[in-house]
Every structure is written in structure tokens, then in C-alpha cells.
Amino acid sequence: MLNENKNKFQEENHHYLVCHMEKYHKQDVAPIEKENERDENYEASNPQIDSERTRNNYRFTPYFGKTYTEFINGRIKELGLSPRKDAVVMNSFVVGSDKQFFDGLSNVERYKFFSDCYKFFAERYGEENIIAAVVHNDETTPHMHLNLMPVTKDGRLCSKQLFDKPQLQQLQTDFYEAVGKRWGLQRGKEGSQKKHLSTAEFKAKKIIEQAETIREENQVYVDALTEAKKREYPTETRKVTGTSNRFNGRQRRPFKAAYEIYRRSIVICQKIRSVAKGKG
After folding, report:
1. Tens of pLDDT along 108-140?
2. If 0-12 CB within 10 Å is exposed, 13-18 middle and 19+ buried, where does residue 230 land?
3. Quick one: pLDDT band at residue 235, thresholds 50, 70, 90?
4. 114 with 135: CB under 8 angstroms?
5. Which residue, among 277, 15, 13, 12, has the nearest Cα to 142 in the 3D structure?
6. 46 confidence band (pLDDT: 50, 70, 90)
7. Can you give the chain as a three-state secondary structure string?
8. In this structure, what are the phi and psi dihedrals at residue 213, rounded to the nearest 5 degrees?
9. How far apart are CA 153 and CA 272, in angstroms?
10. CB atoms within 10 A of CB 117
């Protein structure tokens, strides 16, 4: 039992390398571009997006004034291909780690981490096939959306060959060896994900994981609120956060801590509901 608890503690305190992939047909590309390349005026349905921080997003690939679809059509023409209408023309990866990992990095270190991720994919699949690589800093956890065309070594468009199950498992292993290990991250357990997650499911999973991190804090909220009530602290938020001198900082602290944890719990619940309704 002691060893089990020790292993569980170690597992919970590890940071894991994230590499999640989706496949897209040509008609699905434009909406992905709109979300990836958003500016401050983007009308977000994703509750995690903070438009005030969208200006902090950045690219690793230069923007040549082409849309994703124009890039894809141009590359297909260069290769002399005539793909089927239902062909997968773009594989989109979400790469990163958890919020706690990025909280421990400076902005320069974050840039270097994502630069390492970009270089790995560019060397493995050809920089000429990367449509865009965009880092999003305006959501709860920093991450990079890397979109590429599945072009084989012999110049064919074949997502099935490049990204079947064995190839994806090897990608996860190689990505960890080249990038994750260097940054002190852990590789996810092989075979632990029984089914492929859609983007909405993936985001819901990440939100729920964030909710789990405040599970123990909820008890702090209950204890602090009980203490606040016993001391008859004000129940209106404006009286706590305002400039009133009725209570000193030490007296206000339990109630303010309770309110902050309560507020965070509500935000998490709203995010889960939003994703469940298909808005993620």
C-alpha cells in the first residue's frame, strides 16, 4: 500500500508531454485556420480564450499572405498530384504540456520549448510541408497548433501511411526522446488511451483535469467560509475587494481565499458545460 501511494504521488507530480493529432479534409481546413490564426476581434465560443491576451500568440512559420487552403493547393500543384475529394490534406497537432509545467518557465524558455517542438516536426516531415505553427498564449494552458500536409518521402499525399497506429506510437516515442526528455517531461503510457479523442473531447479532458487540481482546495474553501461566517465577515464581494478599512488584511484573508476558490470552481463548471454542448 505504501509503494502504491508513493507511485501515485510521483505520477501526480509528473508533467507529461502532450501530442494530440486530428485529420482534416479540404472542406474542414478553413474553420481550423480561423481558430488558429485568430486576432483580438475573433468571436470565441471556447470559454478558455481570453481575447485580451490574443496579441501574445505567435507563429514559427512565416506568413506569406496565403490561406491554409491556398498553401495546400499550391503544394499539391508543385507535387503534380490529383488527390481524391475525401483525401486527408492536413494533419493538425496540439503539442505542449500542462499549466504547471509552463508556470515554471520564463517566456524565453517557453519560446525555446515550442521552438524545439517545431524543429522536431520540420525535420521529421519536411518544413516545406508545414502549413502553419501557431503558439496560443491566450488560453488557460500555452500550446502550439502545428498543421502539416501528410506528404510521404516519395511525394505522395498519404496520411494513412504516415500516421497509422504504429507510426503514431513511434512518433510519440521519438518526440519524447528528442524533446520531452530534454525538458524533464514524462512520456504518456503506451496504450493508455483506448480510443482516439476528438478535439472537443480532448479539451473537455484537459478542463476536467484542471478541475481535479482544485479538488483539495474546495475543502479549504469550505473551512475558510465556515470561519468567515463565525466571525461575521461581510458576504458581499464588493465589501471584501473594496477599500473599506472595516477589517484588516489578516481578518479578510479567510473569506477572500474562500471566495477565490469558489469563483475558480464556478469557472471550471462553466467550461465543462460549454464543451459538453459542443462549443469547445
Report:
1. 999 999 999 999 999 999 999 999 999 999 999
2. exposed
3. very low
4. yes
5. 15
6. confident
7. CHHHHHHHHHHHCCCECEEEEEEEEHHHHHHHHHHHCCCCCCCCCCCCCCHHHHHHCEECCCCCCCCHHHHHHHHHHHHCCCCCCCCEEEEEEEEECCHHHHHCCCHHHHHHHHHHHHHHHHHHHCHHHEEEEEEECCCCCCEEEEEECCECCCCCECHHHHCCHHHHHHHHHHHHHHHHHHHCCECCCCCCCCCCCCHHHHHHHHHHHHHHHCHHHHHHHHHHHHHHHHCCCCCCHHHHHCCCCCCCHHHHHHHHHHHHHHHHHHHHHHHHHHHHCCCC
8. -70, -20
9. 41
10. 26
The pTM of the full predicted model, rounded to 2 decimals, is 0.68
Question: Which triple of cell numbers denotes residue 141?
Answer: 494552458
User: What would the grid cell of residue 121 be?
Assistant: 516536426
Q: How far apart are CA 45 and CA 48, in angstroms?
A: 9
Residues 6+ apart with CB under 8 A from 273: none
Q: Using one digit for the tens of pLDDT, what is the confidence trace for 23-32?
A: 999 999 999 9
